[in-house]
Amino acid sequence: MKYVLYSILVVIIAMSIVSCREKKSTKLSESTKKEVKLSKFAKNYPDFNPQHLKEALQSQLQKDSILQSLYITNTFTPIWVHDTLDTQGLRELSGILENSREHGLPVNYFPIDYITSLMDSIDSGIYSHDLDILYQKMTDLELVSTRSAIKYITGMNYGFTDPKILYKKDYDIYTARPDSIFFINLYANLQKNPIKPVLSSTPNDLVYNKILDEYRNLESKKNIVLSKITTSKTYKIGDKSSDISEIARRLILTGEYKPDSIETDSLHQTLDKNLLAAVNTFRRKNSYPEEDEVGKITIDALNRPLEYYQDKLRANMERYRWRRTKSKHDKHIEVNVAPAILFASQKDSLPLITRVCVGSVTNKTPLLESDISYLNLNPIWNVPTSIAQKEVAVLQKKDPTYIKRNNMKLYKGGKEVDVESINWKEVNPSKFAYTIRQNSGERNALGLIKFMFNNAFSIYLHDTPSKAAFSRKNRAVSHGCVRVQKPFDLAFFCMSAISNDLYKDRLYYSIDKLPISSEGKKLAKENKLKKLPDILNPKDKISLFIDYYTAYMYPDDNGTLYYADDVYEYDSVILNALDMEVAKKSKPI
Fold it and tell me: Rounded to an integer, what distance in angstroms lies between the CA atom of residue 382 and that of residue 212?
């Protein structure tokens, strides 16, 4: 009997303990046996049902086939707005999107304010009496956050704009675009940890990081006010003026000038060698020729606000986010149209750097990719119809000796026509129907060598008899082709697999120039130096890009960032496209 009473007492005590546990408002952790407090979200919304949120999300995604494929693999489980509302993750995302301005994107490019306001309103508990509205707000917050994350990641990987749309017919470089594999991996990574793929998506190459650092540096100085230099004078070594102090202040700000004392009041007003050297450093960084004086062109450049450079950096960050698909060969030629410079580089060798002349604003050099096919010595120039009508025929009317003096011939129906048989006074240049061909030689517009490559624009790199243009600041002067200042150095670069001193002598001899080496001179004197054929085929593959960057670095340089004038106004095209993306938004993405 005692045993029975004892058993009943044990059962009653056990039931009392279970009952007490069930009445508590906290749960016991299975691992630590410590009380775990309810989250703020759970306290605000005690009747929240995660399944109802999934259903609301699924219903909303019926209108969005792109995002539907992300969530359907996870049975429509939210990424950001779980039953505890991931405010930490959302605020971290908002912070990253806010910092996108450092990457050149305009303010409000992402709906940061909308994300924050939704998050704060949900977090405040104001929807506790209407859970249908809560589910709708949480769905909105979930989807706008996910779309923003995807847009950021995709843009950082591939660019936020498409160069083929921006540059239209003048762009023939293939750039990568996001494909299905990219999105499959992106969706999987977002489900694992939504912040990690956002953080890891920013470009990490040397030039991009240099531009990013410089943008941040200028941003920290943008509130510094400097007086405008209004003089129209030209200053030389030894000249004194208060303007010279202002020049020094600007060069201190931009980093080219580092005097013994940086106190502005102690800056002397004399242009000395050190200050002139700093001015020339500034010129080099802005793709201007060095000089021994400081005149209007340089002072105008010094007067530019820091925003001028920040806009360049913004545009070029976008350019460096575009990912070319064509690989560079071991031998590579890069023409940068904006500063009109050519870089020819090869692994384990010093790069060849030379000035070029590029197409004028009305005859832009197209941006393209290709491989060098062959070199043509002593080229013949078949004058394009537009040039024949707009230039040659007009000049011939003014000067009847023009065509003959320039070693040109006329053809019609494939047969040569005597220039003197035409009454040039009656010729209408716009209807000029003759074919013009300029024979090879020193006066040929293509010079003594041209570099051929497949392209849709019928352009090429070539020598030129007009050397004076290479000393100009603005070298956008051609009809579209690229004129090379050092064409023979470029030829030796292309032919280096078989090139030696004697080969170089043979090339010079082939274009009626004197050999350089003693052996070449001896063979030429003995009539034993053989000329090369007019068509030269490099043994190495040589990749070529003709592109456009107004903020750039030299290969194998010490990390200096250089700027170029936006001769084709392509920077504006990019910045306007980014700004329009903000302006056209009537509601959050």
Answer: 46
C-alpha to C-alpha distance for 29 and 31, rounded to whole angstroms: 5
Contacts 24+ apart (CB under 8 A), 485-488: 485/354, 485/355, 485/356, 486/352, 486/354, 487/447, 487/448, 487/449, 487/451, 487/461, 487/462, 487/463, 488/449, 488/463
Q: Are 512 and 443 in contact (CB under 8 A)?
A: no
Q: How far is CA 1 from CA 13, 79, 200, in A?
A: 19, 61, 74
Alpha helices in 456-566 (DSSP H): 487-494, 501-510, 518-525
Residue that has been written with the tokens 């409000």 in this structure: 108
Indicate whether 250 pLDDT > 70: yes
Eight-state DSSP code of residue 270: B
Both tokens of 586, joined, read 């009537």
DSSP codes of every residue in 271-336 = --HHHHHHHHHHHHHTT----SEE-HHHHHHHT--HHHHHHHHHHHHHHHHS-B-SPPPSEEEEEE
CATH, range 328-572: 2.40.440.10
CA distances from 550 to 192, 266, 351, 547, 570 (A): 39, 35, 20, 10, 9
CATH superfamily of 235-302: PGBD-like superfamily/PGBD (1.10.101.10)
Q: How far is CA 148 from the centre of its chain?
A: 22
> For the chain, which residues make up each domain, given as ranges?
2-44, 235-302, 328-572
Tell me the three state secondary structure of residue 343: strand
Q: What's the pLDDT tens digit per position in 153-194?
A: 999 999 999 999 999 999 999 999 999 999 999 999 999 999
DSSP 8-state symbol, 77: -
- State yes or no: pLDDT of 257 exceeds 80: yes
CB atoms within 10 A of CB 517: 14
49 three-state secondary structure: coil
In this predicted structure, what is the pLDDT of residue 310?
Answer: 96
pTM value? 0.88
Angle at 451 between CA 445 and CA 453, to 5 degrees: 120
Helix or strand run (H / E) with residue 145: helix 131-158
Secondary structure class of 22 (helix, strand, coil): helix
